[in-house]
Amino acid sequence: MANILHIETSTDVCSVALTSEGQVLDHRENYEGQTHATLLSQYVKEMLDYARSRELKLDAIAVSIGPGSYTGLRIGLSEAKGLAFGLQVPLIGVNTLQLMTVSTMFNHFIEEDKVLYVPMIDARRMEVYTAAYTPALEAVVEPQAMILDEHSFASQLEQGYTLVLMGNGSDKARQVLSRDGVRFIEGIKPVAVDMLALAEKAYRAGEFIDVAYSTPLYLKEFQATKPKNPL
Asked: Can you tell me the mean pLDDT for 23-43?
């Protein structure tokens, strides 16, 4: 087991957690949105102060790499890179969609034998960032930006899978995918405390990302929008 500092900024939640020996020692979360730039550094400082007070040496920094908010991902990865470089520890990238899947599996018991977990992060209009994972985190549908309609995941439903949808993009799916074989789980948000299992797995396997050149998993190009009331 390792001492890991986790950073999650892929959505409107800003969160940081410190874990050691497979346990969460301390964490901070803010759900008010658009607070990453002002709160993240303070949360990180508080975790580092906690680690120093208990003479814990960090073994790695873990950060969610997306998909998700362009701004949030850039802020989180920049902070994580700076910490990893300054502390001379490896950097772990955690896929946000896998993170949501693991959180759902840990917190909700699904009885069906043939199940796929379908995390969804809101993008624009009827578009979401999504994928479909088995309980072993094998990607049956690879991470992608998808425009939802009544035909989305039709192949998986025809094969007899139960789809478990979660995340802030799943509200859009309710409009077109409310049918037999589709379940919706409320309240799943990517947060740092839930990164523990994936980060520990990556640390043990030596699966690290480049501190200098790694980039977020955007899935599509950034599209700037015009302000509604330009001056």
From this structure: 94
Quick one: tokens of 58? 């960090």
- Phi then psi for residue 150, to 5 deg, are -65, -15
Cis-peptide, bond into residue 135, ω within 30° of zero: no
pLDDT reading at 118 higher than 60: yes
The span from the CA of 157 to the CA of 151, in Å, is 10
Which residues lie closer than 8 Å to 87 by C-beta, 6 or more apart?
58, 61
Q: Quick one: pLDDT at residue 110? A: 87
Residue 48 near residue 4, CB atoms below 8 Å: no
**C-alpha dihedral, 170 to 176 to 181 to 182, nearest 10°:** 10
Q: Are 72 and 218 in contact (CB under 8 A)?
A: no
pTM of the model: 0.93
Cα→Cα distances 132→6, 124, 222, Å: 24, 20, 23
Q: Identify the residue with better confidence: 9 or 219.
A: 9
- Tell me what the pLDDT averaged over the chain comes to: 94
Residue 167 and residue 192 in contact, taking contact as beta carbons nearer than 8 Å = no
Say whether pLDDT at 95 is over 90: yes
